Inverse folding.
């Protein structure tokens, strides 16, 4: 029974962290109600399947899959070409699916050639610290807006939503720090459940649209056969390297919690790379956004204090199972976004603690702190760039230059590798 309830908690965490993506894409591409339901259903189905494959054959760690933010941003950029007469909304989704399938093939090639394991050496404490700090800072604006009830339809703070959200945040902190282990383990589930009831009482719940169908099987090629475009292929090539970096970071961060040594992590990197390739291909085949292991899972595991794989795998199975029922999907879509943001806000506060622990591992503080300062200044500075500043850049460049997390992290990697190279040369001369 305990694992069953923990599995339900994982299910809610996975859905709450991902449900906004298909809703956002639906809005960007002006999809009708049936197309939106299909996209949501396929997204949840693939999330559960991808998580199970990673859990059984990949990294075998409690790291949930989520639609990759990088793919999401690329899709947002490509949605603009519809107005320019480049293609219809469905054709863009087909081209996007082709790009993900190409990315999946690249993942498999990089894993087979050992490139992924070689790339793992870049994740030193300095780079991990930069990545975690930029990750939390980049998402902090989204969290605060969501907590305040600011969205595409409402650009002003909703005071009632903000007050209720703060109450959910306080509740999550209190339950997560309880001396009772069972309460701590189920703190996220309890916070979402109680928070949802509170929002319903104050009439802040989303609208539930019930479908006539009781069950609907997710179908591949829902928006047509994927198309391969050179522009999207070049973008996918570059995005794949960034997704690998994201994947390695998530495994490395969770490894600090599970206590896996470097040798174990190296094996996990290769297996996870193969599986990530399969998951990208699945995403392209089912016309959804390709998934990636997310770092916030570490905050979730730290919050509930449960590292076991059984609840995680059950949660993934539950996600795929409930995706078969349109009525349930619509109910979950009615979960107030502010609740998801509030609970995730608490989980990401744990990520700051993890970053500070990485800081303690740094040996050469003088040079590392300089690298950290330059990287954070660059990454955070990019976060303040207006979206219009990137309009004239190619999609490949804008996906990198417009992402403070990636740009700052890559800069940190380059600066540290240059410093280490000079240090090795100096030692050889001696």
């Amino acid at each position: 029974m305990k694992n069953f309830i923990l599995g339900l908690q994982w299910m809610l965490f996975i859905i709450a962290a991902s449900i906004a993506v298909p809703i956002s894409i639906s809005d960007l591409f002006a999809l009708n109600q049936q197309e939106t339901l299909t996209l949501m259903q396929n997204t949840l189905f693939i999330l559960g399947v991808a998580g199970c494959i990673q859990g059984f054959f990949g990294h075998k760690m409690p790291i949930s899959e989520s639609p990759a933010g990088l793919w999401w941003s690329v899709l947002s950029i490509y949605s603009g070409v519809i107005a320019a007469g480049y293609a219809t909304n469905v054709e863009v989704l087909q081209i996007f699916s082709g790009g993900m399938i190409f990315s999946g093939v690249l993942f498999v090639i990089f894993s087979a050639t050992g490139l992924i394991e070689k790339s793992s050496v870049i994740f030193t404490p300095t780079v991990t610290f930069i990545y975690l700090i930029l990750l939390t800072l980049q998402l902090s604006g989204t969290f605060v807006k969501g907590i305040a009830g600011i969205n595409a339809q409402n650009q002003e703070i909703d005071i009632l939503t903000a007050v209720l959200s703060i109450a959910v945040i306080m509740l999550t902190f209190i339950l997560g720090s309880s001396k009772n282990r069972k309460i701590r383990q189920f703190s996220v589930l309890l916070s979402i459940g109680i928070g949802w009831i509170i929002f319903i009482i104050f009439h802040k719940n989303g609208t539930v649209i019930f479908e006539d169908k009781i069950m609907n099987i997710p179908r591949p090629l829902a928006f047509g056969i994927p198309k391969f475009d050179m522009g999207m292929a070049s973008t996918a090539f570059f995005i794949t390297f960034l997704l690998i970096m994201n994947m390695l970071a998530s495994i490395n961060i969770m490894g600090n919690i599970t206590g896996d040594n470097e040798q174990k992590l190296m094996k996990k990197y290769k297996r996870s790379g193969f599986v990530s390739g399969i998951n990208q291909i699945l995403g392209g085949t089912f016309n959804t956004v390709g998934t990636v292991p997310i770092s916030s899972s570490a905050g979730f595991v730290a919050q509930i204090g449960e590292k076991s794989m059984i609840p995680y795998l059950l949660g993934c199975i539950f996600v795929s199972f409930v995706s078969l029922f349109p009525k349930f999907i619509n109910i979950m879509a009615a979960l107030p976004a502010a609740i998801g943001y509030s609970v995730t806000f608490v989980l990401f506060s744990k990520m700051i603690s993890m970053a500070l622990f990485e800081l303690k591992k740094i040996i050469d503080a003088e040079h590392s702190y300089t690298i950290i300062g330059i990287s954070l200044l660059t990454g955070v500075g990019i976060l303040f760039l207006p979206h219009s500043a990137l309009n004239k850049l190619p999609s490949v460049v804008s996906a990198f230059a417009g992402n403070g997390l990636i740009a700052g992290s890559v800069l940190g990697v380059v600066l540290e590798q240059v410093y280490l190279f000079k240090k090795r040369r100096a030692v050889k001369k001696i």
